[in-house]
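Case 209 in the screening queue. Each case pairs one protein sequence with one candidate compound; here the compound is zinc ion. For every case the pipeline is the same: read the inputs, emit a complex structure as tokens, and attach any notable structural observations.

Predict complex for case 209.
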Amino acid sequence: MNFDYEKNLDRAYDNMPEFLTTDVRFSIPEPDVIIEGKTTVLRNFREITDTLNRDPSHLLKFLLREMGTAGKSDGSRVIFQGKFTTEDLQSQIDAYTSEFVLCSECGRPDTALVRTDRVLTLKCAACGAHRPIRKRKVREVKSKDAIEEGGVYDVKIIGVGKKGDGYSRVDKYTIYVPHTVKGEIVNIKITHVSGTLAFAEIVERKSKE
Ligand SMILES: [Zn+2]
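Case 209 output:
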């Protein structure tokens, strides 16, 4: 057999795993979730961040913000206040993965988060693409009198009502926002308040999960 041929074959094999691993091996472990009293324990948190190759504190911060709860890491686990299902955690981790891990050009996870100036950028090692990470600022509306007609707020759509309109909740108010889907973060303007029901229109769409 031709010596150069074998040598080239070896080299080809040496180079291959870089391209193969991402498609074959990148599978995020399913969240291992147990309820303990009034808390939810994500037992394989560290395994998940290892697979995603991301800073555990970055994912934790994301989960706490999106789930609207408190929590802390405990060794390789995370303990959240409140009860959450495996599906709850799964959908949040999926959202994190698509926003902070997967390349939007080639779909591979071989990426790094790079901060230049004040902009966070996702850079792909596989194809060289890069994209900015959207800034998401969800303003918390705390005061009971905060919801008023004409007021503008950022809210997260937490469900869809019987008539197909998305809704959010702020304190005692349920705010209906037409043409939205669950998980979406929108900037809205309150058009009408009736008792604890409020109706709003979209000013700007912030993100969709
Ligand atoms: Zn890429």
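Case 209 observations:
- The pocket of zinc ion is lined by residues 103, 105-106, 108, 124, 126-127, 129 (CB under 6 Å).
- The radius of gyration is 22 Å.
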